Amino acid sequence: MDAWDVIIVGAGAAGLMCAITAGKRGRRVLVLESADRPGKKILMSGGGRCNFTNLHVESDNFLSDNLNFCKSALSCYTQWDFIELVCKHDIKYHEKTLGQLFCDSSSKDILNMLLIEAEKAKVTITTKCLIDKYETRERSEKNFTLYTNQGKFTTKSLIVASGGLSVPTLGGSDIGYRLAEQFGHKITLLRPALVPFTFTDSFKLLSEKLSGLSLPVRLSTGKHQFLESVLFTHRGLSGPAVLQISSYWREGQSIRLDLLPFTDCFQHLVKQKFEQPRAVLRTIISQLLPRNLVLELEKCWWLEKKEVPIAELSETLIQTLADSIHSWELKPSGTEGYRTAEVTLGGVETGEISSKTMESKRQPGLYFVGEILDVTGHLGGFNFQWAWASGFAAGKVA
Q: How many CA atoms lie less than 13 Å away from 195 in the CB half-sphere?
């Protein structure tokens, strides 16, 4: 039996930050990772360049049944704290759009930084470690016993940083949820989030033809909307706007695309009746949208009028066409699921978790950090910032 002050389940972003923070306090820390190396999701994030935080972190950038839960941790360890750590290691980075910060070189820079800090804090990381079962002892100096394929470990503080169900090929699993339920914690409804949409209707054929095409849109469902790019794929729609709205979309709901969010399409077309009276619609609209998209829209919306000069079109027809361009209604059949989802929406219910320390109110010495909790960020570095902040919150007390 091997005794530790702190055992952390999961060597992802939240687990490593928690281990570093606890180790710096002189705690003897063991991190157990089921994969063959730590930080696999860090390495694949941001297209291999790791969107490690955002300049504009607010609680409004997160979804949760308890929207106030994330505020304390985010205020105690901010994006500026993590940026300071990045600068300390001389990692070059840049802002892409909307405050998103990426490594200039590679995601490896962030992972190597964390591993260097963990080594300095004398943290032990054990990979390929599979946990068979847990036991607890009330009022014991070593509350938790873990039985694994690499031996038996005990600890007073057990921190669950095992992530969610997303990207199972990188280690996503339900182990953390099962452990939480073992200690009486409830799990909110789990769903894949930040995930592309799929279609099975006629739009699938259209998206296949346009696969690879990207353009800025305003995408909405219900009261939620995002002004970013969409990407047509062989299966449907992806891109930043789609990933964002997927966290709010539910099966059976429609989405609406405004293909010209920066232009009043009706006013533009009416103006062209006088400036280009002999031009046909596809010629005029192709000045605003990619021509291959316009040719597909022509088949959908004005095929019978495709050779009619705009001067001969009624303003009623032009208004109808403009409305379609500004509010193209589509109904996804589903999403690509956890296979490609960047995060898992939902998680351990926060009502019985301390927002300041991430400690369970049901089981002293048990903590939950990162994606496993019912806190899900928007696309753009927010989920990483939640990982850093929640990991730090638990690591400074565990």
A: 25
Q: Which residues contact 90 (CB under 8 A, 6 or more apart)?
A: none
* DSSP letter, residue 312: G
Span 15-57, pLDDT tens digits: 999 999 999 999 999 999 999 999 999 999 999 999 999 999 9
- Helices then strands, counting H and E runs in the chain, come out as 13, 21
Q: Are 266 and 318 in contact (CB under 8 A)?
A: yes
Q: Per the structure block, which two tokens stand in for 119?
A: 């080594």
What is the DSSP track for 181-239?
Answer: HHTT--BPPPEEES--EE--SHHHHHHHHTTT-EEEEEEEETTEEEEEEEEE-SSEEES
What is the distance between the alpha carbons of residues 299 and 305, in angstroms, rounded to a whole number? 10
Model pLDDT for residues 88-114, shown as the tens digit of each residue: 999 999 999 999 999 999 999 999 999
Tokens representing 76? 């105690």
- The reported pTM is 0.95
Which residues face 155 on adjacent strands?
4, 144
Cβ count within 10 A of residue 183 = 17
Of 49, 48, 71, the closest CA to residue 59 belongs to 71
Q: In what order do the strands lie in the sheet with 255-258?
A: 328-330, 255-258, 214-221, 224-232, 236-238, 197-198, 334-335
